[in-house]
Amino acid sequence: MSTWVQKLRPASFRGVPFKVDEYGKDSGRRVAVHELPGRDRPFVEDLGGSAKGFSLRAYVTGPRYHEARNRLEDALEKPGPGVLVHPRRGKMRVQVRSVRQTESTKEQGVAVFDIQFVEAGDAQAVVARPHTPTLLLSAATGAITEAMDDFSRVFDVVGMTADTVEALQDDVGLVLASVEAMVGGVASDTAALIRAPYNLAAAITGSISRLRALAAEPEQAMRLYRPLHNAGAKSHIPPLVSAGMAARAEAMGRIHLLVRAAALADSAAVLSGLAYTSANHAKAVRLEWQAAMDALFFCSLAGGIRIPDSLFRLLRALRAAFLADLRARGETLPLLTIYTPAQTTPALVIAWNLYGSAAREAEIVARNRLPHPLFAQGGRPLEVLNV
Q1: Which of 37, 294, 298, 319 gets the most CB atoms within 10 Å of its CB?
Q2: Model's pTM, two decimal places?
Q3: Which SS3 state, helix, strand or coil, does residue 287 take?
Q4: CA–CA separation, 311 and 150 (whole Å)
Q5: In angstroms, rounded to a whole number, what is the distance separating the alpha carbons of residues 384 and 387?
Q6: Predicted pLDDT at 184
Q7: 346-365 burial: b if 16+ Cβ within 10 Å, else e
Q8: CA pair distance 319, 286, nearest whole angstrom
Q9: d(Cα 13, Cα 83) in Å, to the nearest integer?
């Protein structure tokens, strides 16, 4: 029976033979670690496998070793990749990364080369791909800015009666209070704000943007913004029996349009920086956000307000950017599937059976909110990733 030593191949590079003292291999994954303000746990983005590296301690020896040394030096210094015959791995196409050559007066007749190789793949054109989160942030900023500008151009209380202004002031107070309940610190001087449209728009959008600090994951972000996505949707519009009531309804319609547009844009900006756990998770968030945007496009706001063309174009661009970002980041994620243990089993055993790794026990426990990791109830369906 042959031993592993007998199976070793004679080593060479570009046809120049040498002996090998020891060898090693480098591999791993390329990752980008995103450490976000206010979050204790980083988001790690997998960028693909690292280039495989090979290290060899090669040597040439003998009374005419200097000739073999010179040939190996020439082979290692040539540009471009070459064929390496590895003692264990056979032929491979590699590129020399670094060489350290050593000769000693104590050990004459031998030259040692510590060589670092890297696997040389085929040349491929590098395709530039848009960074969808950045494009989404830009689209969100543009939509918010246009919503504020449009509001400040058309919102006006001049010509309203004192009673109408007072009633409108109460309506605006209720809108601001709904945001105040979530974030606090919202300006409360509505009497001054409704007479300065841009300041009112800045107060509303600035307060909405403070929700960003509260959202740590996509589902939480949608819960926070959900009431604002539907602002004014359930407003009761009484029969317009006076000019004052018509003016009040129109003014509230414009405020609700501002709130909904700003909330949709701001939530999209938040979601661009949050990680999804599965393709199913990303799809659920996409469907809810998309439905809220479509509802704004087709809703009937108080006072018969319609979305201006300039704002509509930017909201439509925001919708496209949001969907592009979800496709880019969500479709590559694993899908959720259902696993039902036949009998009560520790989550650690389930992780080993499904993935061959006990390290994913915590993932199963957290996703299914198991009361105890040792007792995943038999017959109860569990949500697990398919990879």
Answers
A1: 319
A2: 0.58
A3: helix
A4: 8
A5: 9
A6: 56
A7: bbbebbeebbeeeebbeebb
A8: 10
A9: 6
